[in-house]
């Protein structure tokens, strides 16, 4: 009996020793789950990065298209403006006007008083020339004529103003030497270009004197 009991115990021990360890199974399952989950996370990251890249590409494409259309609009506008300017220039050139950026100028072929000269300019949709730059001053004296410009002090003696009401500034004037002087006490309230051979060409003159004149018309596209 004792031998048999011993054999049974031995068999039981051997059988028990060969059974799988439950904890080992659990560790193996967890390990497999970890290995199976890792590729899934990598795929998710890849999809997320791809989506982000597509978004960036879409934004860049939109910006490029907007810039392209904007550049196209600028080119089209510039072309249209040039066409308008050419047509405008052709129309006025036929009427005897000259173009000097950014205005059109009409130089008379006859002489009139200052007021009559201005009325002629107004009828042409312009006014007597207002000189704003040195380049314009050089342009207006190249015709080698005594010409009225749009400057006078008829409202108040010594208070020189342009025809648009802008006062003449001392820092920007082209009076000839000793001018304005009211020569021989004459009422010299209008201004002409007289000394056209030099930069400081302006002279005050009685407004009822007869002179050529220069009209100026602003160009609007």
Structure description:
With 221 residues, the chain is an alpha+beta fold. Helix content is 48%, strand content 15%. The chain has four helices and eight strands; from the N terminus they run ααββαβαβββββ. Strands 1, 2, 3, 4, 5, 6, 7 and 8 form an eight-stranded mixed β-sheet that branches. The protein starts with a helix and ends with a strand. Mean pLDDT is 78; it is low at 1-19 and 33-37.
Topology readout:
Blueprint lengths: L1 H16 L4 H72 L3 E4 L2 E5 L6 H10 L3 E2 L5 H7 L6 E6 L8 E2 L27 E4 L8 E4 L6 E7 L3
Parallel strand pairs: 4-8
Antiparallel strand pairs: 1-2, 2-8, 3-8, 4-5, 4-6, 6-7
What descriptive keywords fit this protein?
single chain; 221 residues; alpha+beta; disordered N terminus
What is shown here, in short?
With 221 residues, the chain is of the alpha+beta class.
Beta-strand percentage?
A: 15-25%
State the helix count.
4
Major sheet, described briefly? Answer: 8 strands, mixed
Number of strands: 8
Report the end-to-end length measured between terminal Cα atoms. 126 Å
SSE-based structural type? alpha+beta
Which whole number gives the mean pLDDT?
A: 78
Please tell me how large the radius of gyration is. Answer: 47 Å
Quaternary organisation of the protein chains: single chain
N-to-C series of helices and strands: HHEEHEHEEEEE
């Amino acid at each position: 009996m004792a031998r048999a009991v011993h054999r049974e115990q031995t068999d039981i021990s051997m059988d028990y020793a060969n059974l799988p360890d439950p904890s080992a199974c659990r560790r193996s399952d967890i390990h497999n789950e970890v290995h199976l989950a890792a590729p899934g996370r990598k795929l998710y990251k890849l999809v997320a990065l791809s989506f982000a890249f597509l978004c960036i590409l879409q934004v860049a494409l939109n910006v490029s298209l907007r810039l392209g259309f904007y550049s196209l609009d600028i080119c089209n506008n510039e072309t249209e403006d040039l066409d308008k300017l050419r047509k405008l220039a052709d129309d006025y050139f036929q009427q005897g006007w000259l173009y000097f950026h950014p205005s059109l100028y009409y130089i008379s072929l006859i002489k009139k008083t200052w007021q009559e000269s201005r009325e002629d300019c107004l009828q042409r949709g312009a006014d007597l020339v207002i000189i704003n730059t040195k380049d314009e001053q050089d342009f207006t004296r190249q015709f080698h004529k005594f010409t009225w410009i749009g400057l006078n002090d008829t409202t108040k003696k010594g208070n020189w103003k342009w025809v648009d009401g802008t006062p003449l500034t001392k820092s920007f004037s082209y009076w000839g030497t000793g001018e304005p002087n009211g020569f021989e006490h004459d009422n010299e309230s209008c201004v002409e270009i007289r000394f056209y051979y030099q930069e400081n060409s302006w002279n005050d003159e009685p407004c009822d004197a007869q002179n050529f004149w220069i009209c100026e018309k602003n160009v609007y596209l």
